[in-house]
Design a protein that fits this description.
By secondary structure, this protein is of the alpha+beta class. The chain has one domain. Strands 1-3-2 form a three-stranded antiparallel sheet. Strand 2 and strand 3 form a beta hairpin. It is flat.
């Protein structure tokens, strides 16, 4: 038997797409949920076997919206300390995008239309990898960047390769 914890659609203190209000809601909502998943992976690593970060479908009078969920196999959580530790670490979610080295995937400025600089999760993760990359001497500007960069490199190899190519062009 597994339990599911709803982590929300974005970090708690960040603006996000609003069902029935935000233009192009479904696309932006899905992009924010995918980015939220990547942000939690950056901070905590990929989920161990026995738990998973999943997209939850929620039905509302105004339509369907999506949030990020954590499913935890109850038996695995009792048997495997890594499962229980991961679940405990991610269940509170994030307060802001910056905690995990990410820029907001969608900007909601001054009541105008939402602004999206990168339209795919691969491009968003590539941006986070560039932001958290080591200096030329291999040292990280912020010590926590090493963890974020390593976790994203492992979980998103396509984005890691794109970031390496971009850095070679500089």
């Amino acid at each position: 038997m597994s339990d599911t914890i709803d982590l929300g659609g974005a970090p708690a203190n960040e603006d996000c797409a609003q069902l029935g209000h935000t233009p192009d809601f479904e696309r932006l909502n899905r992009l924010e949920v995918a980015t939220y998943r990547a942000a939690l992976v950056a901070l905590h690593g990929s989920p161990p076997q026995g738990c998973a970060l999943v997209t939850l479908t929620n039905r509302h009078d105004f339509g369907v919206y999506y949030t990020l969920g954590l499913t935890v196999d109850a038996g695995a959580a009792r048997r495997e300390p890594t499962v229980a530790a991961f679940a405990e670490a991610v269940q509170e979610g994030l307060g802001s995008w910056i905690e995990s080295g990410f820029a907001p995937p969608v900007r909601y400025d001054d009541g105008g239309p939402p602004k999206v600089d990168r339209t795919s999760i691969d491009d968003i993760v590539t941006g986070a990898l560039l932001a958290t990359r080591p200096n030329a001497d291999g040292a990280f500007a912020v010590p926590d960047f090493e963890i974020l960069h390593r976790n994203l490199t492992i979980a998103y190899p396509r984005s890691a390769e794109a970031a390496r190519r971009l850095l070679q062009e500089i």
